[in-house]
């Protein structure tokens, strides 16, 4: 299962998860109606660093 | 995948979606807080009147002198003796009828600070009037 693999540290699985949730990530990356690329990158890094903390 | 496995899978996915949304929201808040310029907090009491810019004095000084229509001369005097920032806060609260939260944003301080200043200012005014023999 992709989620389990992503939580376990698989980069490939993490990429799939990020792709799947891209619409949500992009929605939160909007500042005053415009996509803030720095914010998007910050969110992606934040997810990558914290996904292992997700309680399965 | 049988029915029970599908349910477990859906439940896990829902939990992950909620967790991810919270994580993204927190990341955004953290990012935006870092972007916000930081200001050094200085107590109003410590702020000399001269530190106010000319334009600010012109705007708020003028407002504070004339915006209140004091019938009581002593009240006008007590008001004039308040620190300029407290005069400004009272004017914004009672003349301009702004909300403390709005004032806090304009003055770049917390709403609690506005409440505190209002309390202190009203207390001073009350004391000033009571000294003259009246009780409010």
Secondary structure layout:
The complex is a heterodimer of chains A (56) and B (136).
Chain A lengths: L1 H7 L2 H10 L1 H7 L1 E2 L2 E2 L1 H14 L6
Antiparallel strand pairs in A: 1-2
Helix pairs in contact in A: 1-2
Chain B lengths: L2 H33 L18 H13 L6 H9 L2 H12 L4 H8 L3 H21 L5
| Beta fraction of chain A | 5-15%
Radius of gyration of chain B: 25 Å
CATH fold type of the largest domain in chain B: Butyryl-CoA Dehydrogenase, subunit A, domain 3
Residues in helices of chain B, as a percent range? over 70%
Number of helices of chain B: 6
- Spans of chain A of at least 5 consecutive residues whose pLDDT stays below 50 are none
The assigned structural class of chain A equals mainly alpha
Question: What can be said about the biggest beta sheet of chain A?
Answer: 2 strands, antiparallel
SSE string of chain B, helix = H, strand = E? HHHHHH
Domains of chain B, number: 2
CATH architecture of the largest domain in chain B: Up-down Bundle
Can you summarize this structure?
The complex is a heterodimer of chains A (56) and B (136). With 56 residues, chain A is mainly α.
List the defining traits of the structure above:
heterodimer; A: 56 residues; mainly alpha; 4 helices; B: 136 residues; Butyryl-CoA Dehydrogenase, subunit A, domain 3; 2 domains; 6 helices
Question: How would you characterize the overall build of this protein?
Answer:
The complex is a heterodimer of chains A (56) and B (136). By secondary structure, chain A is mainly alpha-helical. Chain A has one domain. Chain A is built from four helices and two strands. Chain A has helices at residues 2-8, 11-20, 22-28, 37-50; strands spanning 30-31, 34-35. In chain A, helix 1 (2-8) packs across helix 2. Chain A is elongated and about 35 Å long. Chain B is elongated. Chain B has helices at 3-35, 54-66, 73-81, 84-95, 100-107, 111-131. Chain B contains six helices and no strands. Chain B is mainly alpha-helical and 136 residues long. At the A-B interface, helix 3 and helix 4 of A face helix 1 of B.
């Amino acid at each position: 299962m992709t989620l389990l693999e992503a939580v376990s540290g698989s980069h490939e699985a993490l990429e799939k998860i990020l792709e799947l949730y891209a619409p949500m990530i992009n929605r939160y990356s909007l500042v005053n109606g415009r996509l803030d690329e720095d914010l998007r990158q910050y969110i992606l890094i934040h997810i990558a660093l914290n996904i292992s903390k997700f309680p399965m | 995948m049988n029915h029970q496995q599908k349910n477990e899978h859906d439940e896990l996915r829902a939990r992950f979606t909620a967790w991810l949304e919270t994580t993204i929201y927190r990341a955004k808040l953290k990012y935006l807080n870092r972007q916000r310029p930081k200001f050094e907090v200085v107590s109003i009491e410590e702020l000399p009147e001269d530190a106010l810019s000319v334009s600010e004095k012109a705007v708020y000084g003028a407002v504070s002198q004339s915006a209140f229509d004091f019938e009581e001369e002593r009240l006008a005097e007590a008001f004039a003796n308040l620190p300029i920032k407290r005069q400004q806060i009272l004017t914004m609260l009672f003349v301009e009828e702004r909300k403390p939260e709005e004032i806090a944003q304009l003055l770049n301080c917390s709403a609690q600070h506005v409440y505190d200043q209002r309390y202190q200012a009203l207390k001073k005014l009350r004391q000033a009037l009571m000294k003259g023999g009246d009780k409010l």
